[in-house]
C-alpha cells in the first residue's frame, strides 16, 4: 500500500440500523455497501491498541451536522453503544484496505459545535461481571429471560397522555387507572411519540394526587424534553424482594435471589445463636 494514497474511513451503525460512513479523504469512498463521505469533518485521535486482551481505546471527533450526527440525537442517546469500525484504505483502490479498529462508541459528548466519542474495543465486555451473585434480592431484571414475566398486559403497563411536565422529569396525570400507590416506582417511563419518541427513564417516585391523579418523577431528565399531549407508557417496577415477587407479580417460582441467606449480623457474630434464625 502506497503511503501517499492512504486515507482513513469510519463506519458507524446505530442500534436502530442507521449507518453512516466518514473519511478524511477529500472525495467520497465506497466499499462494503457503505458510502464514506468527506463532507463532515471527522478525525480519530490517540488510537491505542494493545496485545492480548487489553482494551483498545481511542477518541473520535467531528462536526455536528443535522443530517449526520446531530446534537439532538446525541442528547437523546441514540448514538450510545453504536458499532464502529475504522480502516486504513488506499483511496486509489479501496480493495486494498486494512481494518484497524472494531468496537463501539462509549460516552458521547458535545461542545462548541463538535461531538467527541469514546471508542471501546471488542474486549470491553470482558470487564463485565460474569456469573450469579449470591444475594437475598433478585439478580434478574423485570421481564428478562431469568424473570420470565410478561409485562405487556394492562396489569403491569398503562399508556397515557402527558398533562403536566416540570423540569423534564416530573410528569403529571389528572386521570389515572386504578393502580396501587407507588405501583410504578423503580419501573420505566417510555415516550411513545413526539420529538422524544423512544426515550425512556427510570421512575424514582410514583405519588398519588388528590382527585385520583398521579405524579411520576424520574431519577433524571431525558435527553430531549417531552411535551404535553405526548403519549407515554408506564411499566410497573420491582424492588427485587421475594415478597414483592410473590405478592405483586405472583412469580416466586422464577425468583433469582436467595432470600434465606443468613444476614450480615449472623456472618459477623454466629455465636449469638437463637437470635439469628
From TrEMBL:
InterPro entries: Phage_phiJL001_Gp84 (IPR011928), Phage_phiJL001_Gp84_C (IPR018964). Residues 182-265 form the Bacteriophage phiJL001 Gp84 C-terminal domain. It holds the Pfam family Phage_phiJL001_Gp84_N. This is DUF2163 domain-containing protein. It comes from Paracoccus amoyensis.
Amino acid at each position: 500500500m502506497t503511503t501517499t494514497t492512504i486515507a482513513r474511513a469510519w463506519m458507524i451503525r446505530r442500534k436502530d440500523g442507521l449507518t453512516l460512513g466518514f473519511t478524511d479523504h477529500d472525495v467520497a469512498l465506497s466499499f462494503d455497501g457503505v458510502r464514506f463521505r468527506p463532507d463532515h469533518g471527522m478525525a480519530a485521535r490517540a488510537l491505542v491498541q494493545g496485545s492480548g486482551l487489553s482494551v483498545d481505546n481511542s477518541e473520535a471527533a467531528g462536526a455536528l451536522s443535522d443530517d449526520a450526527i446531530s446534537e439532538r440525537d446525541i442528547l437523546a442517546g441514540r448514538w450510545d453503544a453504536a458499532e464502529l469500525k475504522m480502516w486504513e484504505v488506499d483511496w486509489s483502490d479501496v480493495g486494498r484496505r486494512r481494518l484497524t479498529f472494531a468496537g463501539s462508541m462509549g460516552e458521547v459528548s458535545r461542545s462548541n459545535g463538535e461531538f467527541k466519542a469514546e471508542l471501546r474495543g471488542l474486549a470491553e465486555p470482558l470487564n463485565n461481571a460474569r456469573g450469579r451473585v449470591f444475594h437475598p434480592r433478585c439478580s434478574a431484571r423485570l421481564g428478562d429471560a431469568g424473570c420470565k414475566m410478561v409485562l405487556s398486559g394492562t396489569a403491569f403497563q398503562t399508556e397515557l397522555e402527558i398533562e403536566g411536565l416540570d423540569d423534564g422529569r416530573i410528569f403529571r396525570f389528572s386521570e389515572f387507572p386504578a393502580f396501587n400507590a407507588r405501583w410504578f416506582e423503580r419501573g420505566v417511563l417510555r415516550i411513545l411519540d413526539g420529538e422524544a419518541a423512544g426515550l425512556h427513564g427510570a421512575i424514582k417516585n410514583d405519588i398519588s394526587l388528590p382527585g385520583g391523579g398521579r405524579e411520576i418523577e424520574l431519577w433524571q431528565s431525558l435527553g430531549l424534553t417531552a411535551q404535553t399531549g405526548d403519549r407515554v407508557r408506564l411499566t410497573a417496577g420491582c424492588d427485587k424482594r421475594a415478597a414483592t415477587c410473590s405478592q405483586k407479580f405472583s412469580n416466586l417460582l422464577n425468583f433469582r435471589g436467595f432470600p434465606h441467606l443468613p444476614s450480615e449480623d449472623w456472618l459477623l457474630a454466629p455465636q449469638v445463636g437463637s437470635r439469628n434464625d
